[in-house]
Amino acid sequence: MLTQIVIPDITYNLLINEIIKYSVCTDPNLSLLESLKNLTKEDLQDKRQAMKEMGISVGERIIGFIVKEHVWTKEPNSLMRFICKELWMYLFGRYIGRLQANNKGVYIMYDYKFHWFQGLDLSESIDRENFEKFCSLALSWVCGVLKGAFKGLGKESSIEAGVEENNSCRFTITLKLG
């Protein structure tokens, strides 16, 4: 049985905030909010790519720990159920909210309780544009973790994410069939 270390939500929230702050803040005298405001579209894209790459590395390592304890198959639907249950439980302490699929290798995962966006420690009020920048950085990391997990399971994937209402998130995953 895989022993899972339970990390309180607040610790996880603070950790992801610090990772984003570290990747975004080029001037230590600026707050995260000030740094977000100064990001150009090109800079934001570069930072999102860096967050995704960090996530891929983490995802490959995490899946290596998890699969040691589970029998799994490369069948896409089984892999998706594994990701929605085991990986999500490992990362967030709960199962994904909902999973939708089509016959073409496209899956949509909904997380209705994505708490990273609640109570952002930005010390200032944040406007919608900068909130979206922050969310895109956090979700880039999660997309990377998912991509790394699929890579560790031997599947090529393409993953996109978006913020829904009430701190919900949607992850669209396309698995290469065959």
Provide the fold topology:
Elements: H1 9-24, H2 32-38, H3 41-67, H4 76-92, E1 98-101, E2 106-111, H5 128-152, E3 157-163, E4 169-175
Antiparallel strand pairs: 1-2, 2-4, 3-4
Helix pairs in contact: 3-5
Task: State the distance separating the first and last CA atoms.
Answer: 31 Å
Low-confidence parts, pLDDT < 50 over ≥5 residues? none
Strand content: 5-15%
> Rg, please?
16 Å
Family: Belongs to the TRAPP small subunits family. BET3 subfamily.
GO biological process, one term: endoplasmic reticulum to Golgi vesicle-mediated transport
Protein name: Trafficking protein particle complex subunit
Pfam families: TRAPP (PF04051)
Tell me briefly what this model is.
Pfam families: TRAPP (PF04051). With 178 residues, this protein is an alpha+beta fold.
Report on this structure.
This protein has 178 residues and is an alpha+beta fold. Helix content is 52%, strand content 13%. A four-stranded antiparallel β-sheet has the order 1-2-4-3, with helices on one face. A hairpin with a 5-residue loop joins strand 3 and strand 4 (169-175). The two termini are 31 Å apart. InterPro entries: NO_sig/Golgi_transp_ligand-bd, TRAPP_component, TRAPPC6/Trs33. This is Trafficking protein particle complex subunit. One of its GO terms (cellular component) is TRAPP complex. It comes from Stentor coeruleus.
